[in-house]
């Protein structure tokens, strides 16, 4: 849904004291014209159900593009970095990891008021609450989990130095830096006392492993962040949402995937389950996914519980920041505005997995 003040034709149309728009059509048209990306008028449609960066399907005649930019401020430091996303996707082009092709980037705030990325539109479903009807059987559900793990294994095989990602992150001390960074974010994001978040942080610090050889880490690797190819056989057409990517411990991505991979009998994660899709018959278990990862990578996943707890704790910290944004009136996203109880559920789930 596009709010009335999300899209304006010219900067002059923004009333004094009004919220900054998300898209300004005339400077965007000039930007696209200068790069040969279509011609004529622009129509916009929000795509996906993500609640982080803002994503629009841009139509110019027969051409379809995807525009991605940060939400309105206030934003936590280093979050919502669409230029980082573009850098990683460009580096991964031509590797085993399927990503959308980046067509243009913009750092000039005079265009839309924030950096943005324009990329190709990749056809296919993004699965959140339901599998597409043509893929909704036990075999396809099982294959979806295997395809995710295979894509994660492929990401771990990419030589991040050879593809130009030197400096994206430091390969040493990844886990310790994650604990330090997200502890600081919690102090900035918190809107109320939540002792469980602090309890889990202490548990993580006391059990932090050394970690294995560094690879590219996606940071938000889950079923809802991939596009499936529109026809059989089931495969991943593109991996999306690289804003949190860095260089670090690959088990962090596996832990995140498994932490949100719900099974029958698991306590609810409320709205964050997006319908509890993976509870349904046919989907692989977390144990089966971990075994496939070990087979594909040769990396033991015996200590994966730490990484699952880390993922849930980090997610609680990040979502509390979105709750703060909603309370400040910086977003119209009803999901974020209603997510305060979800942060509590995430913290409880993390504590439960930690045995606290």
From TrEMBL:
This is Phosphotransferase family protein. Residues 43-276 form the Aminoglycoside phosphotransferase domain. GO terms for molecular function: transferase activity. CDD domains: ACAD10_11_N-like (cd05154). Keywords: Transferase. It comes from Baekduia soli. The lineage of its organism: Bacteria, Bacillati, Actinomycetota, Thermoleophilia, Solirubrobacterales.
